[in-house]
Every structure is written in C-alpha cells, then in structure tokens.
Amino acid sequence: MKKELDYRPRGVCSRMIHIETEDGIVQNVCFIGGCSGNTQGVAALVKGMPVEEVIARLDGIDCGGRGTSCPAQLALALKETL
After folding, report:
1. Which domain holds residue 72?
2. Per-residue pLDDT tens over the stretch 38-60
3. Half-sphere exposure (CA, 13 Å, Cβ side) for 64?
4. Are 44 and 29 in contact (CB under 8 A)?
5. Count of domains in the chain?
6. N or C: which end of the chain has fewer CB atoms below 10 A?
7. CATH number at residue 16
8. Which one-letter DSSP state was computed for residue 61?
C-alpha cells in the first residue's frame, strides 16, 4: 500500500519532511529547509530501504546537542507510517 506523509519536524532546521512509502519500503524523501547537502544525502541513502531499518539506523541521532536531528526526525515521521 502506498502512503504519503508531510511531517513537521521539531527542534531542527528543516521545516517539513515529505515521505512516500510503498509496502514498507521508502520510495522518496524530500526535506524542506535544513542543511541541503546533508538532507539530500540522507534522502538518497534511505531510498529503497525498509522503513523499519531506516528507523533503527536513524532513531536517536543528535545534532549539536539539540537532542534530535533531521535524520532522527525522519525516523519519528516514519514511525507514523507503520
């Protein structure tokens, strides 16, 4: 089943994360705002990965002592697609 989610992250520079999944696989991720090179890199790396694997790898990553990061916020957003 195809799912789309627009997620508003908290505590990070990016303002929105658009996520598309299908049958538990990440099809596309687009960060709006944030560190462009880093967010594009994360989006490219997770494409084609199982949602649960992405969550396991990115959950809890910290950026500069904020207690969260754009990758961690992606993991939180993906939890909503399960």
Report:
1. 2-79
2. 999 999 999 999 999 999 999 99
3. 4
4. no
5. 1
6. N
7. 3.30.390
8. -
